[in-house]
Write a structure and sequence with these properties.
The complex is a heterotrimer of chains A (154), B (649) and C (187). Chain A is built from six helices and one strand, in the order H-E-H-H-H-H-H. Chain A is mainly alpha-helical. The longest helix of chain A is centred in the C-terminal third of the chain and has 28 residues. The radius of gyration of chain C is 21 Å and the shape is elongated. Chain C has two domains: 30 residues; 146 residues, Glutaredoxin, CATH 3.40.30.10. Chain C has five helices and seven strands, in the order H-E-E-E-H-E-H-E-H-E-E-H. Chain C has a five-stranded mixed β-sheet. A two-stranded antiparallel sheet of chain C has the order 1-2. The chains are: A mainly alpha (154), B alpha+beta (649), C alpha/beta (187). Chains in contact: A-B, A-C, B-C. Chains A and B meet through helix 1, strand 1, helix 5 and helix 6 of A and helix 10, helix 13, helix 14, helix 16 and strand 1 of B.
């Protein structure tokens, strides 16, 4: 009986707070603000976006985004506004136009060109190397096993 | 008084570094071993003198001697004892001293350890190490001395940057520097090989453990930095592609390429010039990293604004070292006949080459991204930002390519692999990859990166598992034991290989952690009053109260949140909004609860005067795999270093 | 290594060090503005001292100097005397207006600052920070000059003093004051 009462109390205490608590959530607007804020750079804090930054300017910029969204502006419009005030610097990544294409494609060009040259070199080396006599496949005898171990030792 | 002893010791160390260079030059010219011994003495003395320098600085911090400018700038009476020691490398001057101190320690160790076996190399080694030490010591003595006095003596100092008051940050710089500096030993041996013309495999075999050790330190340092950013910066991420982070990542990438490529030279005596090139690039990137961080050329959260004079000096010094190194390489390589023998395109040596290509392209990408703003500014006068979205987009394909190679490389034979064998070895792993993609799709995961990552990880894991299984079985059969014992004897018989594979397993775990915690991170930001609650994922967080907390050198508003899953209480989280009154710096201290290998990460960045708090909840799935993977990598490397010596080593 | 690789290597190294050398002399915090030559955003806000509304539209047809500052900003104190001197030099010209913009500040702090250091011109409060964003401000002090047609002609980040002061007064403000506005119709 005592135990049951205690259990009841325990359950009550666990549930009660949640019964009376106000649930707060994010609105669609909050989410939109976040999505935009994550693409803009906090200009005073170096390589941090205004969403993650704790700087006062970042907060004001977030508020500005919210205000503009409430006025009915779209995401591209808001981004264009910030771009017109701060230039490319405000974007978290180099905008894909003009000379900036270079940095976007450079890694892959390097990979392709490097891969091509490497492939040609290796093929060239292979040709220059006399092929060793091929050994017929044998069942795994002691010698082969030893060789296998040697091969694995690397 | 004590600090003057340190100052004087450092000046003497500077003089001795010049003496060390001179005596090793004389040792080479006169062939008199006494000069080499004098050089060894000089290096050893430099280490003891710099120890005195470090100790004098530590002493001044512990005794809170604010008549020392550096102490007054980086600590105060309320700073906890633990952090006073860390404050030694909390600023520009002290971290340079730590750099050269570690360098002197490693040089001394290298000189004494290899004295008997490498007598001919020693004068070169001493000269190179002394030259690098000279550069840093001159910088410390003439341009940024931590020993300067401050008159009049302030009653209290400023404060160590609150962001740096964190246990991970205490260990992060020393580990990182041990990594940078550790590569100076293989670098010096490589230079010795170039200057002396002994371009055989010897220098690589001798420095193999040094390289592994340096790599381990650098990896640990980078991971600690990520860990610190995660806990201290409060945005729920661990890697921000900040220029300072990139500066440590670039030598790591090329160093990793080197670590693999030397294996080819050891086994097959090929790629001599290439390995020399790689180690020179690795150490150059360590030096360039120091230049970038210390000169203020790049803006970053961490950069210290410094005068161009200091930057110019570092540039000249770094440029000289790098110029001499590459110059020697160019001159020598012209005479080096390449003796490359390749039996097949499909062989382990060729996989290693492609591994190197990917690592170098990765490093070049980070390098380009880091310097691109500087280039654009110089050429066009405009400013751009190269931030995480760029790196995430271009880095992912490269990283996945590397992982794929990691699944192939270790299981493909040297010299030549037959297509039939390849089919046999890799059909199961390929199927495992496909199976993983199907499983992921069934569980509702559709992100392309997650699927590609899952495929590659499953492929590599299966290839690795099959290899372990096969070899364990082989040993079990031979020794007539069970498979676990078979595994253990396989491991001990070939500790170098299998400890490396453990490191590879760590990489896989790490990658799974990174992919999951990056792509499947959920976050929610709400404003709430005491008594309110919010839900994120399966968890409900209720703000019970907000109260004031006092720390030694800070005070904070602490939110007390109870976290429920369904109706079960899981834990209590107490994020803080701290103020360090000395510098008026606010920090947000995160509260973290580990659950299902992931984290519930909670911060409270704002509390308004009317008691409305802004709470930011982040769920980071599988983030423990990131740290766990790092731990496994470390274990593998330690087992590698501690392996018993073989006859030919 | 063949000749081609050697030359590439040397060129890359040279390029790199030239870039680093050049980079040493640049100010990493300098951000070139994209606003020069564009119409100045209009604004209104309360006067720091009186609370009356100040609007940029009031000053149409005049050369306007905007100086963003805050009481917590050290470099603003550094430039304060020169800013007052600048106002002294041009205040008699009917075509010249100078406005301070108080940025990210608490009102009592700002008022105390003006009382302590003195002022001879009006200051508008940027209550929500919107004004600063409109002008692409990222730190204080920042100084803008708007010409008679309402186009931004000049921007400087950092304290106005020394050569910057001379350049601003002699090569920016004076020529702008002397130029006649194009026949713009007041609307």
């Amino acid at each position: 009986m005592m135990i049951r009462a205690a259990l009841l109390l325990l359950i009550l205490f666990t549930f009660l707070p949640s019964v009376f608590a106000d649930e707060v959530g994010e609105t669609a607007l909050d989410v939109q603000v976040r999505e935009i804020a994550k693409t803009l750079r906090c200009t005073v804090c170096q390589t941090e976006n205004i969403w993650e930054s704790g700087a006062p300017l970042a907060k004001q910029m977030r508020d500005a985004i919210r205000e503009r969204l409430e006025l009915g502006q779209t995401e591209p419009e808001i981004r264009a506004y910030f771009l017109s005030r701060y230039g490319d610097y405000i974007l978290m990544e180099p905008p894909k136009h003009g000379v900036n294409w270079l940095i976007w494609v450079a890694p892959f060009i390097l990979l392709l060109v490097g891969g091509f040259f490497l492939y040609k070199e290796v093929v060239h080396w292979v040709k220059d190397t006399p092929t060793p006599p091929t050994q017929p496949l044998q069942p795994l005898d002691d010698q082969a096993r030893k060789r296998l171990e040697r091969e694995l030792e690397s | 008084m004590i600090i003057e002893i340190g100052h004087f010791s450092t000046i003497v160390a500077l003089v001795l570094s010049v003496f060390g260079m001179a005596s090793s030059a004389l040792a080479l010219r006169t062939r008199n071993p006494d000069w080499a011994r004098a050089g060894r003495m000089a290096v050893t003395l430099i280490f003891f003198l710099l120890s005195a320098g470090m100790l004098s600085l530590v002493y001044s911090f512990i005794t809170r001697d604010f008549s020392v400018l550096y102490v007054a700038n980086n600590s105060n009476t309320k700073l906890p004892f633990f952090y006073t020691v860390a404050a030694v490398w909390g600023g520009h001057e002290g971290s340079l001293l730590l750099w050269v101190f570690i360098l002197s320690l490693f040089s001394t160790l290298a000189v004494w350890l290899h004295w008997k076996t490498q007598p001919a190399i020693m004068p070169y080694l001493i000269a190179v190490e002394c030259a690098v030490m000279f550069g840093f010591l001159a910088l410390i003595v003439f341009l940024s001395s931590p020993y300067e006095r401050l008159i009049p003596v302030p009653a209290d100092g400023k404060d160590l940057n609150p962001l740096l008051q964190d246990p991970a940050m205490v260990m992060h710089p020393p580990m990182l520097y041990m990594g940078y500096v550790g590569f100076s030993i293989p670098f010096s041996f490589a230079m010795a090989a170039l200057f002396s013309g002994r371009l055989g495999e010897e220098w690589i075999k001798v420095t193999q453990r040094w390289t592994t050790f340096a790599w381990m330190c650098l990896t640990t340092g980078i991971l600690l930095g990520g860990y610190w950013a995660y806990y201290e910066l409060g945005w729920g991420g661990y890697w921000g592609w900040d220029p300072v982070e990139n500066a440590s990542f670039m030598p790591w990438l090329v160093g990793t390429a080197y670590l693999h490529s030397v294996l080819v030279q050891e086994k097959r005596k090929m790629f001599k010039v290439w390995n020399l090139f790689l180690i020179i690039v690795t150490f150059s990137l360590s030096l360039i990293g120091t230049f970038l961080v210390r000169s203020g050329v790049l803006t970053s959260v961490h950069t210290f604004a410094t005068d161009p004079e200091r930057g110019l000096y570092i540039l000249l010094f770094v440029g000289t070292i790098i110029g001499i190194a590459f110059g020697a390489l160019i001159v020598r390589s012209a005479k080096l006949k390449s003796q490359i023998e390749m039996d097949s395109l499909v062989s382990r040596e060729s996989i290693f080459l492609f591994n190197n290509l990917f690592f170098l392209v990765a490093a070049a990408t980070v390098f380009l991204g880091t310097l691109y703003p500087l280039m654009i500014e110089t050429l066009q006068g405009a400013k751009v930002t190269v931030g995480p979205p760029y790196y995430n987009a271009v880095f992912m394909p490269i990283a996945l390519g590397l992982l794929f190679l990691m699944g192939i490389g270790p299981y493909i034979p040297w010299r030549k692999a037959s297509v039939a064998n390849l089919k046999k070895s890799f059909s199961t792993p390929l199927m495992a990859g496909t199976a993983m993609v199907i499983i992921l799709l069934i569980t509702g995961i559709t992100s392309l990166y997650a699927l590609a990552g899952g495929y590659v990880v499953a492929f590599a894991a299966m290839a690795m598992g099959m290899d372990f299984g096969k070899v364990s079985q082989l040993y079990a059969q031979r020794n007539k034991t069970n498979i676990v014992q078979g595994f253990l004897s396989a491991f001990t018989a070939n500790q170098r290989r299998y400890s490396s594979l453990i490191t590879h397993i760590g990489v896989l775990v790490l990658v799974v952690g990174i992919i999951a915690s990056t792509i499947y991170q959920t976050e929610k930001v709400v404003s709430l009053k005491v008594g309110d609650e919010f839900t994120i994922g399966d968890y409900r967080m209720k703000l019970d109260k907000i109260h004031e907390v006092e720390g030694g050198n800070w005070h904070a508003q602490e939110g007390v949140f109870t976290v429920y899953e369904g109706d079960t209480l899981i834990t209590e989280l107490r994020p803080q909004k701290r103020i360090y009154p000395q510098t008026q710096t606010p920090t947000t201290e995160s509260a973290i609860h580990a659950i299902n290998m992931g984290h519930i990460f909670l911060t409270m960045p704002e509390v308004s005067e009317d008691g409305v708090a802004v709470a930011r909840g982040v769920l980071n799935p599988l983030i423990l795999w990131v740290w766990g993977g790092g731990g496994i990598m470390g274990l593998g490397v330690i087992l590698n270093i501690l392996r018993p010596r073989k006859k030919d080593e | 290594m063949n000749k081609g690789w050697q030359i590439t290597l040397i060129l890359v190294l040279f390029g790199l060090f030239a870039l680093f050398y050049q980079g040493l002399w640049g100010d990493p915090r300098h951000i070139p503005t994209v606003l020069i030559g564009t119409p100045a955003a209009t604004f209104e806000g309360p006067d720091v001292e009186t609370g009356q509304t100040i609007s940029l539209d009031q000053f149409k047809g005049k050369v306007v100097l905007l100086n963003f500052w805050a009481s917590w900003c050290y470099e603003c104190k550094v430039e304060h005397e020169d800013i007052l001197r600048l106002h002294q030099a041009f205040k008699d010209n009917p075509d010249f207006v100078m406005l301070g913009v108080n940025y990210q500040d608490k009102l009592p702090d700002a008022q105390k600052y003006l009382k302590d250091f003195g002022t001879t011109f009006s200051h508008v409060r940027d209550v929500k920070g919107q004004l600063a964003i409109d002008y692409g401000v990222y730190g204080v002090p920042e100084t803008f000059v708007i010409d008679k047609e309402g186009i931004i002609r000049f921007k400087y980040v950092g304290p106005v003093m020394g050569p910057v002061y001379t350049n601003l007064t002699e090569h920016v403000i004076r020529p702008l004051l002397n130029s006649q506005p194009l026949a713009s119709t007041p609307s």
